[in-house]
Amino acid sequence: MSVSAYRFLIPIGLLFALAPWASDGLCEQVAEQTQKEISALERDRASQYAFVLQLLVQKKDYEKAADLIRRALVIPPSQEQDAEKLRTLLADVAAGFLREEKSPGKASELCEEALKTLAEEPILLYISSFAFEELGEQAKAGEFRQRAKEIRSDDQAYWFSVASYLSRKVGLKAGLEAYEKVAAISSEKPTHLSADSEAAMAHIHCALGNYDEALRHCEKLREIARKIVVSRTDIAMLTARVHAEKAREAEVHEKYEEAIEHYKRSAEFSPQPGSAYNAIGEIYVNLKKYDEAERWYRQGLAAGAAALAYGGLGDVQKALGNPDQAEEHYTKAENTFAEEIEKNPTDPMNYNNFAWYYATHNRQLDRGIELAKKALELAPKAPPYLDTLAELYYRKGDREAAIREIENAIALDPPHLKYYERQLQRFQSK
């Protein structure tokens, strides 16, 4: 072998000596690149699933959505962000089965399958518990609720998000227990989330017709406001609303003195007490105490609730046998209602108030129907607005349409249910 051949042996030897090191480094690079590609594919897959699921949920096609979720759960997302998105959409589907399709069995089955694969979280456990309750499996419902309460039990912000979701997607009653947990987490040292949870519970109880409970939570809000900064105006407006709703309930049951007292309490708390004053005036008109009625309507007018006050003053003059003066007030009422709509054309209450005025005064019923329908466009499924439309149809002679609309209102299980049922009986009677 020549000397020149040895020159080639040295680099070749070095190459073989270094080969294991080079091989390990190359493998690590390949493995890292492969993992990146797998992660990218997983994210793309999770994104595609989420996109299709969102479309199916929007279309309320819960069966197809559930099938897609089951396929996604075969290889669950490894990224927490993707897993969280899947859990949220899964909860939407389970809530859809429970509330939209009235299929608690499907809701509980989907949640149980998911809980075996994904990390446990309160929303799915609570939906399962509500489903088991409807299926009559009380022990299992209690078990799932207990499991829910043990998760992140001291995280107030987390539980507030749980309560908000349950209230929106599953039903008002569903959120109550979670809001109570939020309030309990910081009962000694309340936070703004404590205040928000008390306000939410007051709203829910008011919507459910539990007015004493709602007022109790308003009082807790005032206690919190003595310790931290909470909007006193918001508390006052909430308390005023609850008193007004309790007054309305008393009025439905013909407990007029009690109704008047709660309307007065509502006026005390409200920064805009005119509607409460007008409500008192209306009671006195029905009781044929016209001097008292006029006095309260005048207070309503002074407090800025002009449209309803003018209408009430017209009713007083009509009852006293003064049709010309009554017509003057009615004209002022109609002009003021129209001005209120022009100033705020997106507020459904303005349309509803004007429509109700036309209904109760047998004036321009077709125009009233248009206004009531506009209110419902802006606030679909609002029982008071359905009641207004029903009243207009009834006064126009369309009893079938009146019954249909009031039954739609009753199906929503509104507060003051006795009033709506009385309306239905009235529309059905010949």
How would you describe what is shown here?
With 430 residues, the protein is mostly helical. It folds into four domains: 34-150, Tetratricopeptide repeat domain (Serine Threonine Protein Phosphatase 5, Tetratricopeptide repeat); 173-269, Serine Threonine Protein Phosphatase 5, Tetratricopeptide repeat (Alpha Horseshoe), CATH 1.25.40; 272-343, Tetratricopeptide repeat domain (Serine Threonine Protein Phosphatase 5, Tetratricopeptide repeat, Alpha Horseshoe); 350-430, Serine Threonine Protein Phosphatase 5, Tetratricopeptide repeat (Alpha Horseshoe). The chain contains 21 helices and no strands. α1 (3-58) runs parallel beside α3 (80-100) and α14 runs antiparallel to α15. The longest helix has 56 residues, at 3-58. It is elongated, with a radius of gyration of 32 Å. Residues 1-10 and 12-18 have low confidence and may be disordered.
Based on secondary structure, the structural category is mainly alpha
CATH fold name of the largest domain: Serine Threonine Protein Phosphatase 5, Tetratricopeptide repeat
Largest sheet: none
Strand content: under 5%
Q: Name the CATH superfamily assignment of the largest domain.
A: Tetratricopeptide repeat domain
Q: What is the straight-line distance between the termini?
A: 124 Å
Shape: elongated
Please report the number of helical segments.
21
Order of helices and strands: HHHHHHHHHHHHHHHHHHHHH
User: What value does the Rg take, in angstroms?
Assistant: 32 Å
Estimated helix fraction: over 70%
